[in-house]
Amino acid sequence: MRHLISVLLENEPGALSRVVGLFSQRNYNIESLTVAPTEDRSLSRLTLTTIGDDRKIEQITKHLNKLVDVVKLVDLTEGAHVERELMLIKVKASGAQRAEIKRTTDIFRGQIVDMTQNTYAIQLTGSSIKLDAYIAAIGGNIVLEVARSGVTGISRGEKILSL
Amino acid sequence: MRSGPVVDLIEYTSERLNKVDLLSGGEMLLRALHDEGVEIIFGYPGGAVLHIYDAIFNQDKVEHILVRHEQAATHAADGYARASGKPGVVLVTSGPGATNAITGIATAYMDSIPMVVISGQVERRFIGSDGFQETDMVGISRPIVKHSFMVQDPAEIPLIVKKAFHIATTGRPGPVVIDIPKDVTDPKDKLPYDYPKSINMRSYSVPAKGHTGQIKKAVDILLSAKRPMIFAGGGVIQGEGSALLTRLTKKLGYPITNTLMGLGAFPGTHKQCLGMLGMHGTYEANMAMHYSDVVLGIGVRFDDRVTNSDVSKFCPDAKILHVDIDPASISKTVTADVPIVGSVSSVLKEMLAQVEQSTTRRDKKSLAIWWKQIEHWRERDSLAIPESEGEIIKPQSVIQTLFEITRGDAYISSDVGQHQMFAAQHYPFAKPRRWINSGGLGTMGFGLPAAMGVQFAFPDAVSVCVTGEGSFQMNIQEFATCMQYKLPIKVICLNNRALGMVKQWQDMQYGGRYSHSTYADSLPDFAKLAEAYGHVGIRIEKKSQLKEKMQEAFELKDKLVFVDVLVDPEEHVYPMAIKGGAMKDMILSKTERT
Questions:
Q1: Would you call B425 a catalytic residue per the annotation?
Q2: Structure pTM?
Q3: Taking CB atoms and an 8 Å limit, are A63 and B143 in contact across chains?
Q4: What angle do CA B175, B84, B266 make, to 5 degrees?
Q5: Taking a C-beta distance cutoff of 8 angstroms, is the pair A105, A122 a contact?
Q6: I want to staple B84 with a disulfide (CB 3.0 to 4.6 A). Which of A137, B64, B68, B457 is the partner?
């Protein structure tokens, strides 16, 4: 099963490499990874998606917790949560295609953030599935470039991940 | 030009000077080690650590031991830590000094040994420029350390040293690396020194006591067991739980087995002890594990050398009660029915109290039947030493003789291979911290430097290195260190003229094709070699000379004696687990299996 794990990490040099190293060292998967400092500059929040059975996920969270730079973590998929990914995508857009792409982008609540005579750069946020669906809808053959942020998330309700 | 405030500044500075000393980074490091209680460090100098070595020269609080190879420095610090319970400390230079230390760090990591390794690094401005003797030590060591630090500023040194020792010695212990760029230790830059008295890290906490409810659950299951087994590992020794474990086990009257890392956790000479379990464990220990209905695992990690390769066949009828300080060790390979996370000593203490108070009646009848069964297995005498023909010396009998001569009271450091297993099987340890071996990583070359560390920890103790002619050649240069510091180590070399364990597997699984496991015609004369270094060398070739000549070696109390014993090269280590089987599946001799 796919799990979304959010980690509060000391904002120290090398902390990220310890997390990433743990995954390769123990043969765990990282599907996506996103990391940035939080409102407290001494902490970074790292969110990763990984795949494994319950036993594997338990080991992953235990080993993450053992890393000295990890302050706290939560498996967001254990409860209700919101998850989002940002995608910037550049597509071929010329002639009659342009209106069609614009329409599809509107349906997906995306925005065109840059354009030339022959291209659009589009920004889209949502679940990973939605982003995949958008690419399928516009047709893979016009895609020139895709930059996705990886998934980040937050739990619903009053539950928080903080010190 | 400033005028007025200068006076204030001078007053301020002199006031501070009264309270704190101004020290360079190198001096701070030494002072911090002393403040941390470090008496001895093992190291090797080089360019990046010369400022630190100069600081060593100018003080007399911390003794530095010069080894002949950085790997030996880590193993010596490791042996020191295993024998004394205090953290081992290592100092190496950048680049090759650091990479040479890696094997020793990995060895300590696998066996959870507290160690602090200080490595030099190129100057800050050269980091990342592929400078001379530059290597990314923090990066290279990352998977084999508990934590690591790169010092970015001399002012950080006291706090980082404090944190490093705190992390290395608490919880599940392990090695910590401190990488120090050369310019951080520059004697010209002096800063106020203040060593923190205590430390609090928000991202690092130590699980203290086990959950009382879980302990109660475990005790209830334990007391109603019909075929119980206690299974103790290195965690009991590391966690100073041996005395409590011994009390609990005697109180319960249950059988107990020690892992390779746990030898001595419960006295191997006691009748309740079934010896070591696992790959080369005794018949009775492995049989009792397999047929038990309750297994209490304490400070163990259900390593594949214990469980055999197919975990699904492990102790099929047993409820597993698992006590460990590391939550990640629990249910990693074998699912625990009752997991207890906590320090071994605190959990054992509470277990003892609960056992004493419990009203649960033990099933005495079942226990009597269980013991009868165990005694029946024990009669099989799976460690019986095979008869040897003529003057051929069986390796097992060398260990037996060693046990007799040292009255079972020596510190035995071991290398890796057949001799290690023979020592583990035939030298029952009555006390913890007496058996010093690389169990997890299985590092050849560990034995001699580890025995050095033991001798530095206990100068008056009998420090023995049991080795083979293969392993010994991996750190043979430490003969010189032993001479420099007059270490009276007794090296017992089970010389079978081959890489015995490799050869055994080639006999058993590869049709006797000895691919690169023999070298009989190129072995040095070890006794002469020892003498070349200024030590004493004794060679024993005949069974009839064994006891007398070994005795002779131990009578030379002030000398390192290398005893080269030519043993039967055909001997295999038995019992041996059958790959893919359960614990009850063993090869008992060249012709018998269970």
A1: no
A2: 0.95
A3: no
A4: 100
A5: yes
A6: B457
Tokens at B186, concatenated: 């520059």
ω before B575 within 30° of 0 (cis)?
Answer: yes
Q: Which residues contact B580 (CB under 8 A, 6 or more apart)?
A: B308, B309, B310
Q: Give A62's contacts in chain B (Cβ within 8 Å).
A: 327-328
Q: Coil, helix or strand for B418?
A: helix
HSE-up (13 A, CA, CB side) for residue B151: 31
Q: Which of B86, B133, B373, B552 is catalytic?
A: B133
**B132 is a catalytic site residue:** yes
Angle (CA) B583 B587 B591, round 5° = 160
ipTM of the complex: 0.93
Taking the C-alpha atoms of residue B193 and residue B156, their distance in angstroms, rounded to an integer, is 10
Helix (H) or strand (E) run with residue A55 in it = helix A54-66
Q: Per-block average pLDDT, block size 10, for chain B (594 residues)?
A: 43 53 96 98 98 97 98 98 98 98 98 98 97 97 98 97 98 98 97 95 89 96 97 97 98 97 98 97 98 98 89 94 96 95 96 92 94 98 94 98 98 98 98 98 98 98 98 98 98 98 97 97 97 98 98 98 97 95 94 92
Lookup: tokens for B25: 């980074």
Q: In this complex, do B327 and A17 lie within 8 Å of one another by their Cβ atoms?
A: no
Q: Which of B436, B562, B555 is nearest to B78 (CA)?
A: B436
Q: To the nearest whole angstrom, how far is the Cα of B554 from the nearest Cα of chain A?
A: 46
